[in-house]
Design goal:
five-stranded parallel β-sheet; alpha/beta; 7 strands; two-stranded antiparallel ribbon; globular; 9 helices; Rossmann fold
Length: 194
């Protein structure tokens, strides 16, 4: 079974692209959502995060996203540390998902920082969803109600877009000039044949 990774910078439109694949009947694993679920439910993972970042990492058992974000988005080493703690748990969960959907012609793993991590090794093909920076900033502001400076800090913490383009097997252009549906349908036909 073919394992396809879909990635892209924050605000690029990964979720929209994945929803089109889902409408075509393709199972999609949302790595970031699963990571949040695991952080909130897996006591071993919670202990590792608390040991690395302190007791303020969780408030009454709930993950303190604001506290962790304030640390990791301003310190690349701390972000790498957090990722190194969470990713092994997500990778094990992905393996279970693959097993569950092994009858599908292909499956998709959606992850924002796939190319920056070992996650890229858990898929056979990588699709990058690419959108202009201004479009991404506008989308994130509307969705998350955060300042442009906060958005730029998040974007700068991710791998530069030109590096991602070099590493991707396919690119979906989400720029209002290319049809997302047509691009997804083309890839759908391609992946069914691989």
């Amino acid at each position: 079974m073919l394992r396809v990774g879909i990635t892209g910078g924050i605000g690029s439109g990964k979720t929209t692209v994945c929803s089109i694949f889902e409408k075509l009947g393709i199972p999609v694993y949302y790595a970031d959502s699963r990571a949040k679920d695991l952080v909130n439910t897996n006591s071993e993972l919670q202990n590792k995060i608390s040991n690395a970042f302190g007791q303020n990492s969780f408030i009454e058992g709930a993950y303190n996203r604001a506290f962790i974000a304030s640390i990791v988005f301003s310190d690349k080493k701390k972000l790498e540390l957090l990722n190194s703690i969470i990713h092994p748990f997500v990778l094990n969960d992905w393996v279970d998902f693959c097993q569950l959907h092994k009858q599908s012609p292909y499956i998709i793993k959606e992850a924002a920082i796939m190319l920056e991590t070992e996650s890229k090794n858990s898929v056979d093909q990588i699709v990058l969803v690419h959108a202009p920076l201004e479009t991404r900033i506008k989308r994130i502001q509307e969705r998350d109600k955060v300042s442009e400076n906060d958005i730029k800090a998040r974007i700068e913490s991710q791998m530069p877009e030109d590096e991602k383009i070099k590493m991707a097997d396919s690119i979906i252009y989400n720029d209002q000039t290319h049809s997302l549906i047509e691009q997804v349908l083309d890839l759908h036909q391609k992946f069914k044949l691989l």
